[in-house]
């Protein structure tokens, strides 16, 4: 997951082939009055959420448990992102495809930070790439809801709504946790997730109150996915080993349920209760098509080990 | 004006013939309506036309504009306007519209001597 360096391809390139691009950007000219970075037309506005944060594990926190907890949250984001990326070139409209890819990229960014934290917390020194590309499928700790392959657009938006609502609630709590790195990652993720939630909620309401067909398919998606949230409300054993750091399900459950039913009420869709939770996913057990997805996720990194760009 | 074209400028005139543009609820359509997008920069005073997009309604048009046109912190404010709501002058009528201004030098304030001590002129 070594990303291309952002400074390599600034929008304001030199003369030549970049002229067309410059013309294209001229429409923005009146928006620009001052930049804080000459390589970018508008300044980057970047703020590194981890700037100035001490990455040592604070005394009293179990580093191994913290690493595992970060892998759980990181794998949820990584796997959900991968499932969303499967929609790119298959989305119903170009504009919506960009929105989906945007959400997938946000989640990928969260996964990168969380997996990096996992590698530093347990002292193993494993990088985000080591963890994303060189683990076997049964070593991934994502919940079944993140693993799910969407059958249609209704399932896609229902799943983004469900996962983003839960994840945002968890991140809001994590901001006050005892690990400063995890708190900083969560604070920046929470604002992204708020937007994901809002975008998905718009669609759930729109489809739920749209035509007879769209309502039926939205209801079918909710019937299929809503029971899976049972796993979100079951604490994996590692949570008990991280008092003051990890967020127990009881701390977010009510808020998540209220937010979800608020959207479903507006959409005119019925939400089934949470299904039974067995700990599947968090213990490395995944469905039959999980290995296939991980295989695709890892294929380039494994074909060209150590490659970068 | 020529029916079926959006305002000239920005990312260019876009044919809108046959593209439904009313945001009001109505019958189910195969295509999403076209919207024009205007941004106001962090230090800008006015909104500037930057392009167009398709969206199911105004709220989603704002979301799409946020995703497509403000990825690098370009703006603090977005307007979206149904393309059909824009009445534009036509390229065909450019001469009768704008040529009469060409020889009227007295419309330009170039005959005044600016006093040295008046600021902000």
From TrEMBL, chain B:
InterPro entries: PaaB, PaaB_sf. Residues 1-22 are annotated as: Disordered. It holds the Pfam family PaaB. It comes from the Bacteria. This is Phenylacetate-CoA oxygenase subunit PaaB. The lineage of its organism: Bacteria, Bacillati, Actinomycetota, Actinomycetes, Nakamurellales.
